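Are you able to produce any protein sequence you like plus the matching backbone structure tokens because I've never seen that pairing?
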Amino acid sequence: MAVTNPLTHSDLLPFQPNITETMSGAMISSVWSRARKAVPQLTDPELSLGADDTELLRTVLRSAVLRWFDGGSGAVYQRGAGDFSETLRASGMGGTFTREELSELRSLAGLEPGGASTILTYPLPEALTSHPFVAPEGI
């Protein structure tokens, strides 16, 4: 059975009681689409999640929606007092996932986490028979 979106409006209310059902529905739909785009294996009809994995998926989606809602319009706020002033910019990147959240989504789909890799562009040196800073025995 294919994985379906486990997040609902009622899942958001304990964390953000001011969010409307219309707004949360649109945000949930967008975040779910981004999750499926980021990890296409979530749409695999053979993939099924247990209760713990479903809750983890709900948590990742909820975090993205709440971060988006808290970010507002992405406007810039400026404030100052005396010689001090600061500019605050709310994130306008709505519905995006953090690196950790993407890693969790990938693990739910059974994918190994990505890691650093190297492409060797030079030949390997010959194996050393002794340490280069230690004289051979008998000298």
In short: The beta strands are 76-81, 84-89. Helices lie at 9-12, 21-38, 51-71, 99-108.
